[in-house]
């Protein structure tokens, strides 16, 4: 969890589907988390990998895509690569070991794998061949934010859920 959220008090305004959400994160129920807090286990002692147990290691296959071609075009990706990239259904998997995260994207067109530590910049070659400096700025709950700096900067927000992952890319808002 980002330190900006630690040590603060929050009032629950809506609890619809909260038990299901907690189960997706591998908690048996919302009561289990409440019990941990009441037992004196602070948020800081819960590692991100414990919170994300229900998300890490899952494989997410692309089901739909909206404006992805426009997004790639805005980044200067050539027509042939755009057509190939738009026609495949990649599988995405996020794993973590000792604070090192691995994001694998596998498809029939091209497979990529990036390894990173949160907040640290790293070199990346994107699936479309661009060379960028990337940093994963935040990992809060189930959202992974990635900033790619290159000829044209872009931000990718990946939201991991129990059965699907949603990716939103800007400067052109594209959903996958």
TrEMBL record:
Key words of the record: Lipid-binding, Transport
A Gene Ontology molecular function term of the record: lipid binding
Keyword flag Ion transport: no
Span of domain Cytosolic fatty-acid binding proteins: 8-25
Stated family: Belongs to the calycin superfamily. Fatty-acid binding protein (FABP) family.
Stated name of the protein: Fatty acid-binding protein, muscle
Organism whose genome encodes this protein: Ooceraea biroi
């Amino acid at each position: 969890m980002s330190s900006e959220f630690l040590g603060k008090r929050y009032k629950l305004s809506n609890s619809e589907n909260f038990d299901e959400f907690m189960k997706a994160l591998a908690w048996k129920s919302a009561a289990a988390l409440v019990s941990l807090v009441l037992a004196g286990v602070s948020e800081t002692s819960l590692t991100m990998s414990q919170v994300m147990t229900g998300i890490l290691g899952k494989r997410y296959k692309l089901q739909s895509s909206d404006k992805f071609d426009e997004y790639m075009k805005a980044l200067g990706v050539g027509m042939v690569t755009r057509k190939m990239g738009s026609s495949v259904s990649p599988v995405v998997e996020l794993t973590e070991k000792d604070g090192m995260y691995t994001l694998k994207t596998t498809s029939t067109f091209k497979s990529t794998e990036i390894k990173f530590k949160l907040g640290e910049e790293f070199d990346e070659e994107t699936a479309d061949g661009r060379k960028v400096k990337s940093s994963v700025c935040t990992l809060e709950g189930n959202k992974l934010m990635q900033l790619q700096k290159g000829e044209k900067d872009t931000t990718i927000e990946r939201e991991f859920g129990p059965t699907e992952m949603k990716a939103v890319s800007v400067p052109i808002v594209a959903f996958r």
